[in-house]
Structure formats: structure tokens, C-alpha cells
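Ligand-bound model needed. potassium ion.
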Amino acid sequence: MRAWDPRIEEMPIDELKKIQYRYFKSLVYRLYSFSDFYHRRMKEANVHPDDFNSLEDVKKLPFMYKTDLRDSYPNKIFTASTDELVRYHVSSGTTGKPTVVGYTQKDLDLWTQSVARSLTACGLGRGDVMQVSYGYGLFTGGLGLHYGAEKIGATVVPTSVGNTERQIELMQDLNVTAIACTPSYLNHMGEVADKMGVSIKNDTLLKTAILGAEPWSEQMRDHIQNKMGILAYNIFGTSEISGPMFCECSEQNGIHIWGDIAYTEIIDPETQEVLPPGEKGELVMTVLQKEALPMIRYRIGDITYLDESQCPCGRTHPRIGRLSGRVDDMLIIRGINVFPSQVEHALMSIPEVLGQHFMIIVEREGTLDNMLVQVELKQEFFSDKINDLMDIKRKVSHTLKNSLNVSAAIEIMAPNSLPRFEGKAKRVIDRRNI
Ligand code: ADP
Ligand code: K
Ligand code: ZN
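Prediction:
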């Protein structure tokens, strides 16, 4: 199928902008009348819904932060009553206290619609069997992908995370063609399959992976695609905007943000200026049609850039580039900004180590930050000659220094000695604030 909803997905850009504006305008009117929170904000900013005459006028409103949700815990900020709510999700609180999000039936329908468009854009549809190995439950990943996959007529195997050997057996027995999970879990699955003597490439029908919920690198994509003989697509979302819902298309070159669903701004996190397309900054989203939990200029915090160029797939909706982590994932090591995803990127380019399995440990000695990077050696490079190991360590050290501009101590670890993750990977231990 070319597109799930070609009328919307391929609509001329100026028409799309008109639709965005129309949704935005009715959103501000609705919130002015029905949301204490937003009514107060508009008063404070000295604006009235009549003052919004273009989409760019969104700038007249202040940003929204995760703390706005925490301060109104659990649901004081919602604009739907319990009568109208049909579901809650609760974020895992990767960066602090958990937040509660809520959905009306229409909110769920739109989320499902968004996932349906995204999965279709990756070539999935009827006849596909999709194993959903994201966590089911309070986390949005499992149910989000589940409903979207059913919508497009795929057959869902709702395995959730864990019990990996059984997942691999089911993948074979049920002729699974697609999987949705975190990139770290798919890597882990690959290793468990190896141990079971199962080659995902040769012994299964898997051809597509929909991977997200954490940053991953282009090198990781190459690794997964080559090892498993599949195509891997990047899907993005956060619980505050509904859940995972925006994804790459067959071009694998940027994540389409459905413009009728969300309006994207990229800002300089320090000056808060809106940046032009192509410039990297912090992702800010306004969700245009949400009923239960409206989000205007929400500081998502992930670093990316906007791409408004026409995608060869024919979809007119703008794209964002691969997300390299949240502003608050960024480590500052001796004044230099380091994202864990950059470390992964560098390690993946070194043939002797398993770049997908690493840990970063940061400590402070006096006033100096010390970064230790642990990475696993590949089995085939295992050697009892100390010199061989020293050579590899030097190589890792040089590669990291070149790409991060900061030196790190390196520890080469035995294969399979570092933790494996079923959900989002936690690769940083920062002991500086303890
Ligand atoms: P929590 O905040 O509890 O971790 P969420 O599901 O809301 O739960 O997490 C959303 C965050 O996960 C995003 O802001 C981003 O940092 C990360 N994330 C999700 N998908 C991707 C992706 N494809 N690439 C990079 N990071 C991602
Ligand atoms: K997160
Ligand atoms: Zn495209």
C-alpha cells in the first residue's frame, strides 16, 4: 500500500499548513474556555485567542515543561472528565518522578491512526505478523504499537518484553515478519538467538524492525540490518504526545511528523530562539488535536533538527533527524558536551569490540571529571596475550578521543559481561552528584 491515508499524507504543503492553523486556532479557543491552566497562561502572556492569526503565533504562548505535569500530578491539568477518559498511561520517569497522561477515545483513535500511517510507510500491512516486544502496561510502547498494527490489518503477537528464548521460538513458529521493540532489546534477542543456534537472518521470516524509545545510531542500524537481514526503522514519541507514533518511511531518512497531528519547532535550548530547518536544537511540539491532555509548545528535550525538504516517498509532512538524546542526557565532561549516543556511534566503528554493549561511568576526582568507558570485546578477538588487548584498548581510546574531543579511560570487558536491557537501556552511571 502506498500510504495509509494518501489524501492527508501527500497533501500540498500549503493546504497542510492551513489545516494545522485551523486546528491550532480551535485548540486555543477551547483551552481559553475550558482549561484553567491555559486560561491563566494566556492571561499571564496577555494574549486572547483572537490574537493568534498564524501558526507562528504559537510563539505568543510560553513553553510547557515536564514539571508542569508533575506539579499537577496526577491529572489536575487534564481537560477531560473521568467520564470522557478511557485510558491512563504513566511514564517510567527516566528523568525523575513519573508523569500521568490520559486519553479520550478520540485521543486513542488519533494515536492509532498515526501509528497506522507510520507502519504503512515502512511497508507493513495485511499479511504481516508483528511481534510487539515493547513493554505492555503503563509504558506506552506496547499498546501503542499493538493498536496501530491491528489497525493496518497485521497479525499481532503481543509478547511484551522478557522470556527471550520463548520470543525467538514464537518468532519462528508464528512466521513473524516484523518486530517492534527497543534497539537494545533486539540486539539482546540476536545474542540469545545465537546461543540457541538460531540465525534470525536464515531461520526466521523477520524482515522489518520498528525500533525506538531510546537513542540509537546509524552504525547500530547497519549492524542490526546486516546481522539479521532486515530493514530497521526509527520510531519516535513520548508519553506526553501520546506515545510512539512518528516514524521513518521507506527512505529511512528522517522521521515524518504528521502535521495535522503535531506542529514542530526546534529551539536553541539556551536562548529559546526558534531555529531554522537544518539547525540542531531542542524539539518542541504542539499537539494539535488532543482532548484529554493538550500540549502547547512542550519542551520534549530531545536534540534533533527539522527537515522541510520534499521526501522522495511523496509524503509532504516535515521530518526530523535522528534524535541524539535529551538535553538532560547530555554529559558535560570537563566542559565538553558528550551524548551517550556519540559514544555508541564511535564504538560501533571499531571491529574488535561490541559497540552496542557499553557503559559510561563518570566520577569526579577533586575538580576533575573522569569518564570511564567499558566496552565488551568480541569473542573472536579474545586473546590471552596482554599485548593484543593493550592494542585494542589504545585503538578504542584514540577513536573516542577523536570523536568526542575528550579523553576517557577504557576498560575492555569480557564478552557478555555488561548488563543487557529489555526496555530502555541505562548506559550512564554518573557518580558526580552523589
Ligand atoms: P520516559 O520519559 O518515562 O522515558 P517516554 O516514553 O515518554 O517515557 O520517553 C520518551 C523519550 O524517549 C523521548 O523524549 C526520547 O528521549 C526517548 N525516545 C523515544 N523514541 C526515541 C527514538 N526513536 N530515538 C531517540 N530517543 C527516543
Ligand atoms: K526516556
Ligand atoms: Zn518519506
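Residues 12 and 422 are 41 Å apart (CA to CA).
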